């Protein structure tokens, strides 16, 4: 297969949003959907298509609203985030499915994308042939508070810098009083571009830090060099990690809606920022799922890709799990 999608385009959805989409593989293959992480990442820097047998799969992906090639872009301070909730993103996925003439598909999601995949499947279980979830999250308040504050117990020097930046900002944040994620949300929506830029840089540094275990050690993600990418990522992440991204009812409470849908949960034992207990809890609540915990990997390390490829190959072959 080539290095450019077989088809791609822009899809107008509600609230003045326009979503970029692309298709890979063969038009008569088993339909599959890929949901990227973040919130606020993009398809453009992802090698997701290599996790699918494109000779047997019709693979679709989209840049979620506000990021990548979708418009309006969240890096623009004038772009309101009022029309950004998990429910809006679920509707965008359904709009894409209908527009592309897909009856049912295998739904894949990575990190935040696994939260979105679960929210979509619980809203539209009749449209889901199976699921593959990698670096599993549900974006609960417990998970968000852990990744922004609790995991500071593992990286105390880095977290001290992360929290101190918010404390020095003059927005009234004091550690131990208020949530740090909400403080950064205020900074990233500041009318002052210098404040937004500095906050996005600190957020990116913390992101690189807390995913470093099990992924080859600390290294700077080159995507942060793109100011628009970095700003949109940080702004959308803090937005969805507050009330906008929390499902009601919470995702774990709705897992019985997936009864009979085959699914694979793939998680790294060394994923410090997203402990494996979330994947374990979902597996316990989801009849028809199987859980793979890779002892050597962290948040999306290399060998988990092999599990991902195998899980999709099984679903394309029509395999279900007990």
Automatic annotation (TrEMBL):
Pfam families: Abhydrolase_1 (PF00561)
Subcellular location: Cytoplasm
Molecular functions (GO terms): hydrolase activity
Keywords: Aminopeptidase, Cytoplasm, Hydrolase, Protease
Domain (AB hydrolase-1): residue spans on this chain: 33-299
Superkingdom assignment: Bacteria
Catalysed reactions, as listed in the record: Release of N-terminal proline from a peptide
EC number assigned by the record: 3.4.11.5
Chief place where the protein resides: cytoplasm
Protein family per UniProt: Belongs to the peptidase S33 family.
Protein's name according to its UniProt entry: Proline iminopeptidase
Organism: Arthrobacter zhaoxinii
